[in-house]
Specification:
Elements lengths: L2 H16 L8 E4 L2 E4 L10 H21 L7 H20 L19 H23 L15 H36 L5 H30 L5
Antiparallel strand pairs: 1-2
Helix pairs in contact: 2-3, 2-6, 3-6, 4-5, 4-6, 5-6
């Protein structure tokens, strides 16, 4: 009996069946792992599926607008930046953590810490350097002497000011918003702080959008000429 060939055919059949998919799935490649964005998508989307599809569409459009046609690989990075900052900002705008006293340190939104915002800005810097070098190779550094070598110091300084402006803009706005809410809660804890907290939710979302937009714009700028 040809047991081995039959077994191989059976295994191959099972392998082919395992590759069958029902519906459309969105995949992100993160390192060596594949992440599925939506499980069991429905023909008529549910509220949860609608929400996640809207968020994905928004981030994808933002990335495409700023980066260009080669935006695809950068959607996970821009999306992660936006969602992390958005959730962090809202956690501070919704709850005045600073009024809670701790023996050591304080409770606050993660983006209220300069270390967090600097880390996010440095990740952005690393991303746009990687994007430029991966597309242009060592010729990427020619941008520092264009349109004239006289601008070399200014062009180098620009790369240092980008992460500084990103980090301090986000840190300063979130810190100021939280301080205002804390002061109002301490003075008039019932009614007055509520409109300010709603305003904080709006500005927190805008700050997340600004950071993500600038990050995508810097990446697109470093890849300029290859769209």
């Amino acid at each position: 009996m040809n047991i081995i060939p039959c077994s191989i055919k059976t295994l191959k059949g099972l392998y082919d069946i395992s590759g069958v998919e029902v519906g459309q799935h969105f995949y992100w490649q993160i390192g060596g792992s594949v992440v599925i964005a939506v499980r069991n998508p429905q023909t008529i989307p549910t509220d949860g599926q609608n929400f996640f599809e809207y968020v994905l569409e928004f981030i994808r459009d933002l990335s495409k607008t700023q980066i260009g046609e080669e935006y695809g690989p950068w959607v996970p990075f821009i999306g992660t930046m936006f969602l992390f900052i958005f959730v962090s900002n809202w956690s501070g705008a919704l709850l005045p953590w600073k009024i809670i006293e701790l023996p050591h340190g304080e409770l606050a939104a993660p983006t209220n810490d300069i270390n967090t915002t600097v880390a996010l800005a440095l990740l952005t810097s690393a991303a746009y350097f990687y994007a430029g070098l991966s597309k242009k190779g060592l010729s990427y550094f020619e941008k520092y002497i264009k349109p004239t070598p006289i601008l070399l110091p200014i062009n180098i300084l620009e790369d240092f000011t980008k992460p500084l402006s990103l980090s301090f803009r986000l840190f300063g706005n979130i810190l100021a918003d939280e301080l205002v809410v804390v002061v109002l809660v301490s003075l008039v804890p019932l009614v007055i702080p509520i409109p300010v907290m709603f305003l904080g939710l709006f500005t927190s979302g805008i700050q997340a959008l600004i950071f993500a937009t600038l990050a995508a714009a810097y990446i697109g700028e470093s890849m300029e000429g290859h769209h």
